[in-house]
Amino acid sequence: MMEFYKSLYRALLAIAISFAITSILFVLTGANPFLAYYYIFFGAFGDLLLITETFVRATPILLVSLGLAISFKCKVWNIGAEGQLYIGAMIGTLAALSMGESSLTLLISILFAILGGAAWASIPAFMKARLGINEVITTFLMNYVAINLIQWLLAFPLKSPETLFPESARIPSSAIFPIIINHTRFHLGILISFLIILPLMYFLMMKTTFGFKVKAVGENPEAARYGGINVGRTIFIALVISGALAGMAGFFEVSGIQYRMRPTISPGYGYTGIVIALLGQNNPIGIAFASIFIAAIINGSSTMSRMLNQPQGIVDFIQGVLIIMILLSDMILRYLEKKELILR
Predict the structure, then answer these.
(1) Mean pLDDT across the stretch 131-158?
(2) Is the pLDDT at 340 greater than 90, yes or no?
(3) Count helices and strands in the chain by DSSP H and E runs
(4) Considering the domain boundaries, does residue 326 fall inside one?
(5) How far is CA 57 from the centre of its chain?
(6) What CATH number does the domain containing 305 carry?
(7) Would you give the distance in Å from CA 278 to the centre of its chain?
């Protein structure tokens, strides 16, 4: 329980300091910080349509972040979720176009998207687990390989003849998630992500032997190896699961929102997921709240930008400061405990 409270302290501390620093930026640009945060909140939760759009935005972030959490908990730093998302989205789209109208098209497309993301992640996973090659470098560089490969495919061999833009043909209607709330974009994939994938990942990470192995390897790989845990296999599986969820996130975006594979399918969800996994302290429940929180800032910032004439890039600034503050939060907490400003 104490560990839970420390995680909560770290997250709230990082958010509070980030907002304080961002407030200084607002003041320097002539905006009222309180008004800015009001418009961000209103732009994310002001009415039913805005609330549903926040959940639309939060869904791919949630899936990517859950995958990253399991690798981060294993102390394996997967920076390649963006590329894994693109590969999964592309493979899922190709599966949907190949299947055509069928009652199994959606399910099979999702499975292929999962396999695509997992397969792409398995390359750096093998290099890490068997060859000891740094996964930060390999996963990051493979983002560029994946994104540029897909941009070429969509511009030439897989370009739809029906459009002038570099994009795939429209997926069949049987591969599209049904809309749950009329006159919104709130689709079935959102419910699957929050009500099925989230609990499953919580169970996997917190209640299973594999979850214990992941934690043990992350805490002390040598002790884990001495205790009989296959460290290489655990690292490999953690990275593959991470890629699988990123691939799923990619196709959920195609099936629920875009209906075509496009070279701009992700505005950086793979990188945003890093912020969310750290902010949520690699806990699935914390990640769910953090996903909604960041999605609200992203969506609400457009309203704030329009009303106060502020750059929408403030979102990237907040995310950058959040990462720094999360990394510093342990040191800050130790200082506060030493000064007896918070309970140990």
Answers:
(1) 96
(2) no
(3) 14, 0
(4) no
(5) 10
(6) 1.10.3470
(7) 11
